[in-house]
Amino acid sequence: MGDSTPICRCRVLYLGSAVPRQSKDGLQGIQEPLRSLYPSEGAIGAKGIDSWLSVWSNGILLENVDENRKQVTRFFPIDSLHYCAAVRQVLIPERGNNNPEPKFLPLDSPFARTPRAQHPPIFAAILRRTTGIKVLECHTFICKREAAANALVRCCFHAYADNSYARQLEGSGSGSSNSVYGTIGGKSNGTGGPVADPNGWRSRAGSTTTLNSVGVNSRQAMNGGGDAFTVKN
């Protein structure tokens, strides 16, 4: 599948992952991991791995190069996705508190809407491990632009809904659904094919979409969405 095309592909700074302990659901689930992975002083103090992150119809592919210039890839199946969001660190003034705790809010939030070089957009994804102890982990990526972070969220939504719909068709005996997007499998490398332009994705009103069921409703919802979404798995 050397000519397969990802839904989108963005350059990111990968900060690593942390296990959410206080909460694992929704926006609250990423707060604790992001506070441990993202430095309080912002991007200037961030240490991570320069990487490419791409979304395919069947999963998320992380690509980077190690200290020996050897290509390293890590693949996350799309059905391991629990939650993802495009957020920014903000400090919300609190009465009687001179040192408010940083919060990570969706990019379409009134508090996070103003672009700031010190605190760039972040793509956060809670994914379930597929080997060993299958705990949930929050993976954190700094993006250069809001459009890229929003694109990753929107593309994950498309991929999850498309994949779930295909599984539902197979389960009902209606045959498989042919996705218009590329699938990671026997591809020759992680970079083949043209890349979707993240400028084509924009945040819309409403910051969270919850998928309690899949199928027709999910397919219809693909035309909407915001800069965060939750799946139940």
Automatic annotation (TrEMBL):
Signal peptide: none
Residue ranges with Gly residues bias: 183-193
PID domain mapped to chain residues: 5-169
Database matches in InterPro entries: PH-like_dom_sf, PTB/PI_dom
Superkingdom, taxonomy of origin: Eukaryota
Region annotation Disordered: where it falls in the sequence: 183-210
Name of the featured protein: PID domain-containing protein
Source species of the chain: Culex pipiens pipiens (Northern house mosquito)
Phylogenetic placement of the source organism: Eukaryota, Metazoa, Ecdysozoa, Arthropoda, Hexapoda
